Amino acid sequence: MRATGLLALCLAGPALGQTVVTSPAPERVGVTVYRDQSRGNARPQRQWLNGYALISETRTIAIPAGDTELRFEGVASGIVPQSAIVGGIPEGLLERNRDALLLSAGSLVDRALGQRVSLRRTDRATGKVTNEEAVVRTGSDGGVVLQTAAGVEALRCTGLAETLIYDRVPAGLSARPTLSVRVRARQPLTATVTLSYLATGFDWQADYVAMLSPDERTLQLQAWLTLASTDETSFVGATTQAVAGRVNRERTDVPPVSAPPLRLECWPDETTDDVPEEEGGDGYGIPPPPPPPAPPPPPPMAMRSEIVVTGSRMTAERERLGDLQLYRIPEPVTVAAKAQKQVGLIDQPAVRIEMIYRMRLMASDLDAEQAGQLILRSRNRDEEGLGLPLPSGNVVLFRQGAERPMLIGEGAMRDVAVGEKVELAVAQSTGVRARMAGGKGGRQTLTVTNDRMVATRVEVELFKDDDEEIDGAKLTARDGKLLWIITVPANGSVSLNYAIRRR
């Protein structure tokens, strides 16, 4: 027994003798955001981001001689502790810890369990304030029970305004997410410490806005880089980058930061039969809430026309990073907690395109009809007005109307390398349609109609079974597909007659 006590004293000695030094915030910070590869072209779910970020911080810290606990406050709440790299400490680290329990009303009560606190009561009628000692007997989940000189009672169930006063912050609670490390120095020094780590709860997305020209031969293409964070920490004045491309990363589960709320419950002495029911209430003596106010009237047209939105455009600079693409924001920005930010990514004023309408039909269908899908095609090269990597994202297509731009449709851009084909499916047309009609002896008639005011390029992709052949039709084979490619005149139609022969 004596030996066990001596061992415990020896183990506790260094921890009791060490100094605690806190760095409240970084002097410089960099944020590099990596996309969630699993979501494809889908938009990020704002409440559940599965991308991640590489955070790089620089802090100047005065380290005393001996053993010291360095506390890095203000790190990302989604920090992956095992990924942290601390540099700039001459003699290295002894250990590191992530403080996952944050300061909150609930965590204060939980850490004060079984301890004495001060219970302050205020009489709302007279304003009289009284203080008395109390012992916390239960935690924050499901009601706080206190023991006072008068007996046992639940917090805030006496009808008086009550609050708990603590003489100190319990050990182990942090006001902000914190990473702590233990170091040992032979002599005092001032070190420029770098801290780099991965953090979950980030993502980014490319959002494209395209304006179709009146002649339907070019479009103006702009893209915005949308950064999103669900982290509890804001990074002010951060050097910010986004990485496009596939990065192999194994799944890592990060324990969430805990900041439990304070849940209070009261247990009345009376039964439900003793409580009178008030008319117009909900059966518990509580009147229904008032109806919400009516929405304000819309502004008059004259006022609307005077509303102008202005702003300076900042465009991300693109760099090659091996097989990846790095988009660097040229100025420091704030990556705010639980927020989104947009900066310019691409601005190509004249991208040459081919606009077609596409249908996909079974060649042997006896009766089928389908509306054409509007497809924009180009090639990612300088001659077409592009020639730069295009990250995946959503595309919104507009066309200039008589008074204002009109929405035509939306689509999705995949990751497109330089030199690759670009194809965007953005809208379904009701004016360009294909109709299939079957006759005797396997005879088929395919008719495409166009009610637009201009001639329209149409591609019909025909599918057939393995034992079928299409006779009497001049079709184009492309990428293993059979295509009927035609130009349908304005307000006109074109028909194709063929026969289905089975082998």
From TrEMBL:
Residues 1-17 form the signal peptide. Residues 286-301 have a biased composition (Pro residues). Residues 248-303 are annotated as: Disordered. Keywords: Signal. Residues 267-281 have a biased composition (Acidic residues). It comes from the Bacteria. This is DUF4139 domain-containing protein. It comes from Sphingomonas kaistensis.
